[in-house]
Amino acid sequence: MSFDLEAGLAARRSAGLYRERRIAQSPQVPRRQFPDGERLTFCSNDYLGLANHPAVSAALVRGAQRWGVGSGASHLLAGHTAAHHALEEELAEAVGRPRALLFSTGYMANLGVLGALLDRRSAVFSDRLNHASLIDAARLSQAQVAVYRHGDPKHLAELLAADSAPRRLVITDGVFSMDGDLAPLTELAARAQQADAWLMVDDAHGFGVLGPGGAGSAAQTGLGADAVPVLMGTLGKALGCFGAFVAGSEALIETLIQHARSYIYTTALPPALAEATREALRRARTESWRREKVMALVARFRAGAAQLGLPLLESTTPIQPLIAGSAQRALAWSAHLEQRGLLVPAVRPPTVPDGTARLRIVITAAHEEAQIDRLLDALAGLPDRT
């Protein structure tokens, strides 16, 4: 068997689906330097503007001076430090759960949870637009997978009623990363509890941004540990750092420590990074003005977009998708903005469904009103909007 990789890449290019990396030459701030000049960026998940915060950077430096650069081993060998442990305790408190467990990435957290909780006799019920990490985790768990229509609790209830697996888990994003909409968590939790199933929420894009103190989408809807037994959050978005955590009961966390392969068989995060994340978490919880500012900027952007008749999806979060339809149109729109000094990459299939290619505009607390207005001015001249 031969691997004709060049033909596959060529086909991807011709379909307008080829992905390319950019080399940034400055920190994560709205005005970033690239080899060919500066761009005003609207594509970062640094929602609270903490990735380049001096106090967070200083905590990282102090952590490296105390702990060194690497952890040296997995958590279960010699890699778990007091810095990691303190961060876990603070994360658990932040989201109102008894315990939390650090993972290296959100992808690894989702793989670890589903692999530890499910087997061939189990069933998992997944929203159609869930993040790829949840989809892959469901497949790899070997459980029976049922996909319910996006944000449709009634369809979920029908699938649950038709299933008799002894262990059933409902999985959903809290905030959907490409559409920016919120999962109907109250209804999903009610359906899961009625069917004696557990609900797991991947709150990668809600943690730090939504709810009291930034506790996330579940907290915003008033749902506690009984309604959402498994809560996953990431540390590389609103907190501006890196990594992820799973929060839940004492028994859940101990089960993950014993059985989550993506936790057991990987090197722990650098402890210096844990120290930086502790500082970012403290600021995210206490500096509510960051959430207030980003939401005010979102409202300003949506009001301006409505005046221009732009086809935005319904989203009240920092993720503001502008639907182009075809991959070629999304690329043309992105190029139009780049010619005007703005960076908003096109998001195309398979990241989003066919026919829904888009500009995924992301607004952060680091942006200013004048920058939002500059974006709107550039969007007013988008080609081929009809």
Question: Could you provide a short overview of the structure?
Answer:
The chain is α/β, with parallel strands linked by helices. Helices cover 42% and strands 16% of the residues. The protein has two domains: 22-48 and 288-379, Aspartate Aminotransferase, domain 1; 54-286, Aspartate Aminotransferase, domain 2 (3-Layer(aba) Sandwich), CATH 3.40.640.10.
Query: Strand order within the widest sheet?
Result: 3-9-8-7-6-4-5
CATH architecture of the largest domain: 3-Layer(aba) Sandwich
> How many individual β-strands?
13
Q: Residue ranges: pLDDT <50 for 5 or more in a row?
A: none
**Average predicted confidence as pLDDT:** 97
Please state the CA-atom Rg, rounded to the nearest Å.
21 Å
CATH fold naming of the largest domain: Aspartate Aminotransferase, domain 2
**Tally of individual helices:** 15
Structural class: alpha/beta
> What's the N-to-C terminus distance?
46 Å
Apparent shape: globular
Total domain modules: 2
Proportion of β residues? 15-25%
State the order of secondary-structure elements, H for helix, E for strand. HEEHHHEHEHEHEHEHEEHHHHEHEEEH
The helix content, as a percent range, equals 40-55%
Main pleated sheet: 7 strands, mixed
CATH classification, class level of the largest domain: Alpha Beta
Supply the CATH superfamily name of the largest domain. Answer: Type I PLP-dependent aspartate aminotransferase-like (Major domain)
